[in-house]
Write a structure and sequence with these properties.
The protein has about 150 residues and is mostly helical. It is about 80% helix and about 0% strand.
Length: about 150
């Protein structure tokens, strides 16, 4: 409410809609950008890094020496029903899930903070927006006012 009238006029409504639609659009673009462009490369990079530092050997050793020796038989049977392909894909699945729980919310928070700051600056500076139909010379609304 730029003019403190207690309501919003068409120009103020247009300003609000531009800000809200840009926020929604940026969220959609960010989500698909991260999903398509970043996640596959990040997951592969993280898995390679974990392989280089020896995490796979550590997990294999724990599996062979601790799990086989101390896990109850019924739990080992249940785990035995799970296909090997599931265990092979588990690191990729867990890593990509962690990225979605961390990277996307952090990116959206950054976008929200930026756009809220932009909204505050827009509120104080009131940039020129495209003319609405009521402001176009020769429109029926302008002729009625004359």
């Amino acid at each position: 409410d730029d003019d403190n009238s207690g309501g919003i006029d068409e120009k103020e409504f247009l300003q609000i809609m531009v800000i809200l639609c840009s926020e929604i659009t940026s969220r959609i673009i960010t989500y698909y950008g991260i999903l398509i462009l970043m996640v596959p490369y990040l997951v592969n990079g993280i898995i390679r890094f974990l392989d280089v530092i020896g995490v796979d050997e550590t997990v294999r050793t724990i599996d062979e020496q601790v799990w086989d020796a101390y896990a109850p038989n019924f739990v080992q049977r249940i785990v035995g029903w799970i296909p090997q392909s599931t265990w092979d894909n588990l690191p990729h699945t867990l890593t990509s899930t962690a990225l979605f729980y961390l990277v996307i919310p952090m990116t959206w928070d950054f976008i929200d903070t930026y756009l809220h700051g932009l909204a505050q600056r827009t509120n104080t500076s009131s940039p020129t927006l495209p003319a609405t139909r009521a402001q176009v010379p020769g429109s029926p609304e302008v002729k009625k006012a004359e």
